[in-house]
Amino acid sequence: MESSRVVLSAKQKALRVNMNHDLYGTFAEIGAGQEVVRHFFRAGGASGTIAKTISAYDKDFSDAIYGIEESGRYVCEARVKKMLDHEYQLCEERLAREKHPSKRYFAFANTVATINYHKTIEGHGWFGMRFQTAPNKPANTIIFHARFHEPDALLQHASIGILGVNLIYGCHFLYKHPNDLLLSLYDELDKDQIEIDTIQMNGPDFGDVDNRLLSLQLVKHGMTDAVIFSPDGRNMQAADVLYKKNILAIRGSFRPVTLVNLDMMQRGLSMFSQEKRVEQDQIQLLFEITLNNLKSEGDIDEKDFLDRADILCSLGHTVLISNYQEYYKLIEYFSRYTRKRMGVIMGGNAMMDLFNERYYRDLNGGILEAFGVMFSRDLKVYAYPWQDNENDVLIRTDNAPIHPRIKPLYDYLMFNKRISDIQLDDLSLLDIFSVEVLRMIREGREGWEDMVPRPVDQIIKKGRLFGYTGPAPTSGPDLADAALLN
After folding, report:
1. Is 382 helix (H, G, I), strand (E, B) or coil?
2. What's the pTM?
3. Considering only the top CATH level, what class is 241-430?
4. Could you tell me if 157 and 35 are in contact, meaning their C-beta atoms sit under 8 angstroms apart?
5. Of 251, 250, 213, 247, which Cα lies nearest the Cα of 233?
6. What phi, psi does 370 have (nearest 5°)?
7. Confidence of residue 156 (pLDDT cuts 50, 70, 90)
8. 10-209: CATH number
9. What is the pairing mode between strands 379-383 and 386-388?
């Protein structure tokens, strides 16, 4: 359901904050001037809102205030957290509660870098807000990462100012409705201007917020095309997970994870780790679920999504939710962060789709353009065999039913060893399908337990996932058990 909230301009929002005399706090901005706080100065009545504003632009001054970043990166999550910790603590220390009994303290911080002069590096930044919703109440914290897509630094400066105002206003007036708060970040902004790819909401007023669902909303609402969250459910910035890594991805519904999924992952990972240009300690394995897959039965079912995520996370895996139905878009996304060898594990349907021209009709260069994007990178495809029951034949790369028009391209990739077979010993695994396992779980039929890896069956029963209604196990792992199959 669409939100019925009234959309205000940045000036109107700043003025409303300034006119609320219970709101009082500090602004700390690094990297692009004081683009946010200027809205509050210009709106009028700022003396009742702003306790302090600071722009620690010089690195040495910034280090003296907030400490040195060991990573050497200053536009990072760690920096904005240190800024919030420091500035909010100063509010509590310097603003005596006896003198301000009704004040709700807050600290806003950002650390940003706009597009460079030669336009070779896009701008990006971290934004954070720590705020009370009642005097003496513990503070909440919202932190998000944004990428700036406008081609001019001045345009990015203007967007940064509006984005910061939207965050501050949303924290004070929309915190009871987290989804509305999320959507409000784009008030007066276009999704072509700014991409929000990471967000976390934590604190007493966000106790019911599942940050994995917030990640899903980012993709669902077109705020970004992909989000990554870690086994503990934290929405992670892609650069922190993928930078200079050997990325190996496996796409699926994982509804639920089956023995086939696990076998594909384990065998593909074993082959990938033995490649010459792959460093074993730099491999990042991703379980990818596409938005299209999540919509396979209509609109997105959040409970269904969380059931899948709960199992993958409980097994210690990193999950990628993307809007990249075509593989070339996924590889292009990975290429933002690494030039090292990448790998994709594919089943039979995915392999056939990869070489189906109809998926590339919107490209001027068709399938050749898409494959140019994919295989101009250092990419390996690992193909899992599948059973053609109609013709009673096992399909591998040497007898895959590739259209004659595409066969020369396929042969070229095979000759250059860009596609490799995953060898399979137990052919009975090919009779396991996630759709059938899901149906058996929902219908209360027996036998599905033998089609999923241990301890997934126990996790499903204990958590009553995927519509399971049978008896709960008396013992066994639950969702708190991590990295059981890593």
Report:
1. strand
2. 0.90
3. alpha beta
4. yes
5. 213
6. -65, -45
7. very high
8. 3.90.950.20
9. unpaired
